[in-house]
Every structure is written in structure tokens, then in C-alpha cells.
């Protein structure tokens, strides 16, 4: 495997991991479907991801997760659970698609890059939802849930066809979310000092 192929598999893994920060199970379902249909190569240790049983379980989990984020109050509780789950899912999904690397290098990349970006993406969406809950009394949360669903779909599918673009898109989202939160904090600090 060439250095370019290795780099591409790492970027693919990190791109898919970023999508798990928006929704934990939907990117795993998309990767599972792509692997099952022969459009995604998996590390042999993750062949279970391309089985009908995995497709079924991930499909049910994805539907339940998507619908649960539209339940007021429950969405904020889910964010508390989704943060560690996104880290784990991002790590697993990264490791599944990073092939032909020594195990130490593979798992280091999967944990730090895959789990790290999944955790950052999830933290950014959780902060946006928390602000939405405070400033809109939760009425804006369905908009956030819909945007997250779109983000999970777009970044997952983009990771399969243009992994670097998916990674850049996820990083831009994180930058945008942090900038937006900084502006809100600055405005509230300025308002409180007057």
C-alpha cells in the first residue's frame, strides 16, 4: 500500500469519525451499508460491520437516535450520553477503515484523530443545543437537530467520495460553532458590564 493510500484511509476514517459527532449511529450505518455493498474496504478485524445483523442493528439505532433528538428535554440528555459514545464510535469507525498499518500506529491515529474529531464535533453541537435551549426555551432545538442530521448525512457520504472535503467541512463547522459561541459570550459579557 502506498503512502498516499495510507493517508487517504486515515483521512477517510477521520472524516467518517467527524460525522459521528453529529449523530453516532447514522455514519456507522452509512459505512456499514457501503462495506456491505462492496463500496468500502474494511480492516479484516471489522468485517462484522459489513454483515446483515450489523446493518439491522445500526439501522434501528440510527432511527431511534434521529427521532429522540426531536423530543424536547430528552435532546439535552442525549447530548450528555452522546459525547462519550461519539468518541468511541469515531475511534471504531476510524480503525475500521484504516487498513495496512501497524496496530500501534492505526489505533493511535484512530483514538487521537478519529475519536478526537468526533468528540470535538459532538461538543460543538452540544454547546449549540445548550445555547438554543437557553435562548429559545428549546423551541430552536428541532432546527439544530435537523442541521445535525443533515451534517451527519452530508459528511458521511462526502467522506466516502471525497474524504478530504468531508474533513475540511467538519473542521469548518467546528470553527464556526466556536466562533458563534465566542460572539455570544462576548455579547453577554459586554451586556453584563454595562
Please, could you describe this protein's structure?
There is one protein chain. The chain is an all-alpha fold and 194 residues long. Helix content is 81%, strand content 0%. The chain is globular and about 60 Å long. The mean pLDDT is 91.
Helix and strand topology:
Elements: H1 3-20, H2 25-36, H3 52-68, H4 74-97, H5 103-136, H6 141-161, H7 163-193
Helix pairs in contact: 1-2, 1-4, 1-5, 1-6, 1-7, 2-3, 2-6, 4-5, 5-6, 5-7, 6-7
On the 0 to 100 scale, the average pLDDT is: 91
Shape: globular
Which parts are unreliable, with pLDDT below 50 for 5 consecutive residues or more? none
Q: What string, H for helix and E for strand, traces the elements in order?
A: HHHHHHH
Proportion in β-strands: under 5%
Helix content: over 70%
Q: Span from first to last CA? A: 62 Å
Instruction: Please tally the helical runs, counting DSSP H or I stretches of 4 or more residues.
Output: 7
Number of domains: 1
Provide the structure class: mainly alpha
Number of strands: 0
Mind telling me the C-alpha Rg?
17 Å
* Sheet having the most strands: none
In short:
The chain has 194 residues and is an all-alpha fold. It has seven helices and no strands. The chain is 81% helix and 0% strand.
Amino acid at each position: 500500500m502506498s503512502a498516499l493510500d495510507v493517508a487517504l484511509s486515515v483521512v477517510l476514517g477521520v472524516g467518517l469519525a467527524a460525522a459521528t459527532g453529529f449523530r453516532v449511529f447514522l455514519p456507522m450505518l452509512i459505512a456499514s451499508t457501503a462495506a456491505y455493498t462492496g463500496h468500502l474496504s474494511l480492516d479484516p478485524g471489522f468485517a462484522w460491520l459489513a454483515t446483515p445483523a450489523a446493518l439491522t442493528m445500526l439501522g434501528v439505532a440510527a432511527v431511534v437516535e434521529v427521532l429522540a433528538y426531536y423530543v424536547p428535554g430528552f435532546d439535552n440528555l442525549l447530548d450528555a450520553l452522546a459525547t462519550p459514545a461519539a468518541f468511541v464510535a469515531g475511534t471504531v469507525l476510524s480503525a475500521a477503515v484504516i487498513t495496512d498499518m501497524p496496530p500501534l500506529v492505526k489505533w493511535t491515529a484512530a483514538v487521537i484523530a478519529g475519536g478526537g474529531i468526533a468528540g470535538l464535533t459532538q461538543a460543538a453541537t452540544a454547546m449549540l443545543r445548550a445555547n438554543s435551549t437557553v435562548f429559545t426555551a428549546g423551541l430552536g432545538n428541532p432546527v439544530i437537530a435537523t442541521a445535525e442530521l443533515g451534517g451527519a448525512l452530508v459528511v458521511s457520504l462526502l467522506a466516502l467520495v471525497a474524504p478530504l472535503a468531508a474533513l475540511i467541512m467538519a473542521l469548518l463547522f467546528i470553527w464556526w460553532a466556536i466562533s458563534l459561541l465566542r460572539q455570544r459570550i462576548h455579547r453577554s459579557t459586554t451586556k453584563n458590564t454595562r
